[in-house]
Amino acid sequence: MKKIGKITIILFGMMAFYSCTNLNEIILDEYNATTVTDKQAADGILAPAYALLPSIYQHTNLFALTEISTDEAILPYRGGTDWGDNGIYLSLHRHQTTSTDPNVRNTWNLILQGISRSVTAINSLKVNKDPSANLYIAEARGMRAFYNLLMLDLFGIAFQKEDLGDVSTILRTDKAVDYIRTELLAIEPIVETTTGPGRITKGAVWGLLAKLHLNAAAYRDPYGATLNHTAADMDKVIEYTGKIISSGQYALSADYFAIFGNDNHTNKELIFAIDQRAELNGHNRMAYFSLANDQRPIPAYPAANGTDGPAITPDFYRSWVSAYGNVDPADADPRFYKRNVDPKVECVDGNSYNIDRGILRGQQYGLVYQSGAFVKCPDGKFKVGPLYNTRGKAPYPLVVHTETVNFTTAGSDYSTGYRVEKYEFSKKSSSGRNFGEADIVIIRLADAYLMRAEAKLRKSDATGALVDVNAVRAARTKSAPALTSIDLNTLLRERGFEFYWENQRRTDLIRFGKYEDSWTEKSSTDKNMRLFPIPQTAIDGASNLTGYLKQNPGY
């Protein structure tokens, strides 16, 4: 036990782990190492391998890189000043990011720390005598593979490291793909089926393997003019997604927005997710990031408001319009919008109040806010009415979200752009903003269906692909109309409808050969931008190892 105490001293100060998993972290040092059981020590050793996920998936880290760099999200200088940040969000969107971008650097550092913590857990658990140690080693290997998959997807490299004292071997292209696949296959027989969605399970392993094979062409040849999606890779996608679908363990959610609600930890659509319930270590920035500054979703906390952050691009909105023609997408597709605030109802009970979800357009309604407090009706209920932009001086303009949003002065106004409220605001927070209890989705069942549909379609099985796509469309209580035909462009559009704001768009656009297309405020056709630059700080830090860490082409 003394050895365990020494090697786990690095856990000091890290977050408590997820209570549902019974992996409550024990902080070990030379003074208390003899007071804990092997099981408690194993729990404390594994916890840090998962603990950085909420930080990686924060709005200014992975989300910025995977969504604001695409045709789905845009973040201008609001009002000419807010969200300026030296132009980093404009550069991300325009594919002009540099190796000094702080969002790129922070995401790189967090993923690298995740790899390091996973290696630490693997090494430390090898000397633990509790029966759970073998399972925990497998989970730590799974997390190391997952972090490396993120690193490969974003930066084109993976780090192979088995011992804490080793210098990591940098892997690229085929070698990186083979390494990650081998690691996932090694743990598949060991990990359990019921410890998720907050931990690595068999379903998570199958989902990660499916994603690896689906994107393998881009990983093996990241700058290829045409990606070679091999039949062998597509067969593996069909195999692993089939295991998920046929397992009977998961179910498509009848309520689309329940997938992203505060009670989603038990939602059977989730396969692998970040457990961030309010009593733990989560955040709710995905809930308030896009909302108008004058939208205040929680009656208990008048100070909890939006940030006037990113909007969807007109290009992405037009994909919905073109799909449904004369029918408003809000009426045609349950994934587009869910009305919770009725403008005709002036007074509402605070306990049942929820703001609208999905893509928010036009005049916004919500709790009436004056002089630092919410206005109440004579019966004690909360008054609801049109929202006004109170950032400037009276008379205040209405908060009306417009389709047009761009980097011009007019297009960067506080109200411009349709907003997204996909994740629900936490009702257990101590301030309305500092915690989020909705698990952040990494893999869910709908993705298994649509990955399998894509693999079938790339193997010329359009009939089978259509069945899988329509299974997802029909699953919701208010179902989207069935498609009568399918091709790759339609399938990419369908993935946009299903997974917007879920960190999928950049990878999808690259795989479908669309990342060099033009969209609002972006015209770059440089294939080098498919990968992000390795942060200059990382290259400088490795300068004592000649030729070890080389910058990606184009930077």
Automatic annotation (TrEMBL):
InterPro entries documented for this protein: SusD_RagB_dom (IPR012944), TPR-like_helical_dom_sf (IPR011990)
Localization per record: Cell outer membrane
Top-level taxon: Bacteria
Family, per entry: Belongs to the SusD family.
UniProt keyword Cell membrane, yes or no: no
Domain RagB/SusD: 415-522
Pfam families in the cross-refs: SusD_RagB
Protein name (Swiss-Prot/TrEMBL): RagB/SusD family nutrient uptake outer membrane protein
Keyword Membrane applies: yes
Keywords, in A-Z order: Cell outer membrane, Membrane, Signal
